[in-house]
Amino acid sequence: MLSQKAKYALKAMLALAEQKSGELLQAGDIAEGQNVPRKFLELILLDLRRQGLVQSQRGKHGGYALAKPADAITFGEIIRIMDGPLAPIPCASLTGYRRCVDCVDEKGCAIRRAMREVRDAAAAILDGLTLEEACGASASRAQAVLSD
């Protein structure tokens, strides 16, 4: 399940992606426009800045902007930053793999195989959807992801 933190991060990143290159958005404007609690959003933006997806500028005319082009940032990348691996269980994860302590035969485990398929399907969709696509022709696809 997508956490509220990840959902707010996606909303903020979409708002930033809709800005013209070089334009900054203040956290308060993002929070108000996306109906996100400001203090929570500021923590999210800090995480995104630390991970190199957002840049910030201080001062009266400061704010936030994407640190990379919108076509180079995927929903999957944002979700992993906020929530960690996409896999529903650790042994099915590519980025956060951990063997299950109760597993006798990992290669023959039907649960792991099924959860790996879930992970692969989610990754195919989320890693294939960029902010640019979500803001453009694929807006309905992005809305479907956010509404679930």
List keywords for this structure.
mainly alpha; Arc Repressor Mutant, subunit A; elongated
Relative helix content: 40-55%
If strands are numbered along the chain, what order do they take across the biggest sheet? 1-2
CATH homologous group name: Winged helix-like DNA-binding domain superfamily/Winged helix DNA-binding domain
Mean pLDDT over the residues? 88
Tell me the distance between the termini.
9 Å
- Using the alpha-carbon principal axes, give the shape: elongated
Largest sheet: 2 strands, antiparallel
Rounded radius of gyration (Å): 17 Å
Uncertain stretches of 5 or more adjacent residues:
none
Number of domains: 1
Class inferred from helices and paired strands: mainly alpha
Question: What share of the residues does DSSP label as strand, in percent?
Answer: 5-15%
CATH topology name, in short, is Arc Repressor Mutant, subunit A
- DSSP strand count: 2
Q: In the CATH hierarchy, what is the architecture at level 2?
A: Orthogonal Bundle
The number of helical runs is 7
Q: Give helix and strand order, one letter per element, not per position.
A: HHHEEHHHH
